[in-house]
Amino acid sequence: MNAKTAELLKRTFDFGVSTLKFLRKLPKDKIYSVITYQLAKAATSVGANYEEAQGAESKKDFSHKIGIVLKEIRESNYWFRILNEVLQDSQSNSELIKLLDESNQLKQIFSSIKISSSKKY
Length: 121
Known about the structure:
By secondary structure, this protein is mostly helical. It has one domain (about 5-120): Up-down Bundle (de novo design (two linked rop proteins)), CATH 1.20.1440.60. It contains four helices and no strands. The chain has helices at about 5-25, 30-55, 60-85, 95-120. Helix 3 (about 60-85) packs antiparallel against helix 4. The longest helix has 28 residues, at about 60-85.
């Protein structure tokens, strides 16, 4: 495994863990319960599917799995954008901004990987 892959595996794992820790701090009401559930699933799925992509059986399979990773990071980014609007005056804002930024960066990275992996088969 190359260094870039190892770094990305760590980043996606850390993104999932950091998201779960952040979600624990959200208010416990019905509005946030939907967001918490959806975001927890999407954010942890990013790393799980990237991990799975490392065992792809072919280039086409790898590209397909990266497509799933891209969908999940896009969904995570969506929910973080929603929270950014809803929690504008919150004390959790700096942590939220970091996670939103990381989701934007990961979205760009996986978009690039998807484009390049699609050209190879």
